[in-house]
Amino acid sequence: MKYYLRFLGIAVCCGVFCMLELAVNNDNGFQVSEIILRFAMQHVKNYRQYLPELTFWFTPLLFFQIFFGTYIYRHFSVASIYFFSRCRKRTSWFLKESLQLYLFTIFYLAIMLVAGGFITKIFSEVTIDVKTGKTLFFYLFIYSMYLFAVTLAINLAAILFGSSNGFILVESVNLFMIAIYAISGDFLELAEKTLYRIYEYILKTNLFSYLIFYMHKSEKDYFISAFVFFTLSVVFLFCGCIVVNRCNFIESDREEE
């Protein structure tokens, strides 16, 4: 765990970098909920011209997936050699490791927000508003569940196919959904009624769109997003229990191939 604590410093850099330009160029000040919503990409619409901005705000999440995409994978390789020879409770071991990974997602997001708020406070006025509590809750829950689910999927794919292949496999799906979100608005504007329904259905089934707060028009939408990523996390936890019990790292080490 100590090895991965250093990567929380990336959250500080990301928080400062993401808010620095906005803080310097804003003379009207910020409410805390506005800062949180910036990180939640409420301003990122589903049009191609917003793709650079989408990439900019998604990069901190990608960094987490890169650095923690081998968290359970690395520990599993060590446990297979030393721990599992004495203790065969792989499910409880995996759930404990998964809990630690989830805590890292919470710390990472929270630190990033604090760093972003701190740098904003230096250059501009920051005030706490009535929306802060609710916005913070939904942001931390939805984004932590998303990060946990995707990073857990990368770890499981790494156990099965090797660390590089696992990362490429999961991120390919992830980036594909991002691309679909980024161009969906253009297609919806030009589509006829029949095609409009098809494109709208594609957008609604795109998991990444549930991450973007711009797509949330009511409180119900926030709860739906929370449910979607929570369910996805539970599914990957279930799959992970199967994987670690059936996979012997020494016999299936893909790094040697």
Task: Based on the model shown, name its key terms.
257 residues; mainly alpha; two-stranded parallel ribbon; 11 helices; disordered C terminus
Shape verdict: globular
Q: Largest sheet, if any?
A: 2 strands, parallel
**Number of strand segments:** 2
Beta-strand share of residues: under 5%
- Secondary-structure-based class equals mainly alpha
Order of helices and strands: HHEHHHHEHHHHH
Residue share in helix: over 70%
**Low-pLDDT sequence parts:** 250-257
Ends: how far apart?
28 Å
Query: What is the strand arrangement across the widest sheet?
Result: 1-2
If you had to describe this structure to a student in words, what would you say it looks like?
It is a single chain. The chain is mostly helical and 257 residues long. Helices cover 76% and strands 2% of the residues. The chain contains eleven helices and two strands, in the order H-H-E-H-H-H-H-E-H-H-H-H-H. It has helices spanning 2-5, 8-25, 32-39, 51-68, 71-81, 90-123, 132-161, 163-190, 193-204, 219-246, 249-252, and strands at 30-31, 126-127. Strands 1-2 form a two-stranded parallel ribbon. It is globular and about 60 Å long.
